[in-house]
Automatic annotation (TrEMBL):
A GO CC annotation given for this chain: cytosol
Record's protein name: Transcriptional regulator, contains XRE-family HTH domain
Domain HTH cro/C1-type: 14-69
SMART domains the record matches: HTH_XRE
CDD domains, A to Z: HTH_XRE
A GO MF term: DNA binding
Keyword tags: DNA-binding
Amino acid sequence: MRGLGDHLSIGERIAFYRKRRGYTQEVLAGLVGRSTDWLAKAETGRRKPPRIDMLAELARILRVPLSDLVGQSILVEDEKQRDDIPAIRDALMSPRRLSRLLFGPEADVQLPTPAPSAVRVEKSWDDYQGGRLGSVIAALPALLQVAQELEDRAARREADRRDCWAVSARTHHLAATTLAKIGESDLSWLAAERAMQAADSSDDPLVLASAARSGTHALLANGRYEAATRT
């Protein structure tokens, strides 16, 4: 886990949050009206840190508090110094999410079963409750992929349909809550929507009530306080 003790430079923090958002240097530089060379030098310390007004603009575009760029926040990474937020984004925005008919698995593909998948999700919930966010973030890409495969299974097998949807709801609830906690508000909302959709499909009032908490966390992360209270 990387944090305050690492004394990351402002440039390194800009690069960290840029990669987390999935932006290339060219894209971010264009968004703030600067050249790619200017941003590359700022990130690597080959030029002075940007002025405070430019830092504020970068923070706005990267959707993080200004204090995050000047060194007052904790950067969440796993023990191998790897940022898995882009992998979580890829799992949430897989083309298979658009259409099961167009992008779904072949008929003879072996899909996971809900019981062992539920155990893995609860292990990550234990990590979340224990404050081991790096472990949760590292596990989420694979958990989200399994959740999607469980939804595919639910479409084929009526016998365990409800259980499949319930595990998917629990997985996306974990994703939404974790992403909200680390400031990824947009991804948190996307995960919360998925959690609620899966909970609806489970036909289980308890699953739905639990998943509604993910919506609350996502709304709070996006500054929608009245909507969060209503939810």
